[in-house]
Write a structure and sequence with these properties.
Chains A, B: This is MarR family transcriptional regulator. Chains A, B: InterPro entries: ArsR-like_HTH (IPR011991), HTH_MarR-typ (IPR000835), MarR/SlyA-like (IPR039422), WH-like_DNA-bd_sf (IPR036388), WH_DNA-bd_sf (IPR036390). Chains A, B: Keywords: DNA-binding. Chains A, B: GO terms for molecular function: DNA binding; DNA-binding transcription factor activity. 2 copies of one chain form a homodimer. Chain A has 141 residues and is mainly alpha-helical. The first copy, chain A, is 72% helix and 10% strand. The first copy, chain A, has one domain (5-140): Arc Repressor Mutant, subunit A (Orthogonal Bundle). A 3-stranded antiparallel beta sheet of chain A has the order 1-3-2. In chain A, helix 3 (36-47) packs across helix 6 (95-119). Chains A and B meet through helix 1, helix 2, helix 3, helix 6 and helix 7 of A and helix 1, helix 2, helix 3, helix 6 and helix 7 of B. The structure holds a DNA duplex (30 and 30 nucleotides).
DNA sequence: CTATTTTGTTTGTACATACAAAATATAAAA
DNA sequence: TTTTATATTTTGTATGTACAAACAAAATAG
């Protein structure tokens, strides 16, 4: 039978890799007490205190509604603070999130090391760039 | 600030592309009345009548519990039938699903054409193969 | 041939994510 | 200055997906 779509279809292969690497990433991020997405969100907020939700949604390529939910959770954990500013909402780090910065960066490095050990450093880095490039082009459609 | 993880981290870039292409795929699959994942599941069942849920879960790289949910929905829509066989469950197509086969294959082609028009046929096909290869290797971990 | 283990499925629950519609707040126009 | 338009966020709701536990059937060991 013809099940070539299992390898030929970018929808399928991209989401498959997404599921696989999410699992690996969650393991590596366990010490942070956060899932990888929340960890990266915190890095952005720590690095750009006062960044708006709109900007965060764009950088992370999630919808504004999703971002609202993320910030709700981080706020509940006292990891960020909201400040309304005109029609935007700015997001600020807390002491607690600044303390987590190092742990998150370490988890991120561990994740990279883990998959690079399997896929090779060169090729996994190249793959990541190709993926970003592809999504940027498709988002323009 | 250092937000290089937005391009260097395979967790992030794979899932980003996954979100982007899922949206495109859902548009192209709209005429089938199914989301892409369900469409591909039906193609597998049509091509291998009596395939077990375990085999389907492996081919699609989702967990067995997820597959149960998928089959529940397709069964409710009269698009597949279950038949218990020992501790396994075999899944069979219905007339309705066989009628949909052509529509699904067309949607799949349209999806491929849509992203190939943006990314290039060669490079999008190569990317898809790289993605599958990467997930196969990471799933061995 | 019974007791234990393994394998496959289902169910309860939880989270990430999206879309559409509603709410909010500023900016622009009249 | 009141009205209208626009940008941002939030809320309601829905789907995909996972894990852990429960369950059922089969395989294996004693």
């Amino acid at each position: 039978m013809n099940d070539s779509f299992l390898r030929d279809c970018l929808f399928f292969t991209a989401n498959r890799l997404g599921r696989t690497i999410t699992k690996l990433a969650e393991e590596q991020f366990a010490p942070t007490g956060l899932t990888p997405m929340y960890g990266y969100l915190l890095l952005l907020v720590n690095g750009l205190p006062g960044i708006t939700q709109k900007e965060l949604a764009e950088k992370l390529s999630v919808t504004p509604s999703t971002l609202t939910r993320f910030v709700d959770k981080l706020e509940a954990k006292k990891l960020v603070e909201r400040q309304v500013s005109g029609k935007s909402v700015q997001v600020f780090p807390t002491d607690k999130s600044r303390e987590l910065e190092g742990t998150i960066r370490q988890a991120s490095r561990n994740l990279h090391d883990a998959y690079a050990a399997v896929l090779g450093t060169e090729s996994s880095d190249a793959l990541s760039i190709d993926l970003l490039q592809a999504s940027l082009e498709l988002e323009k459609m």
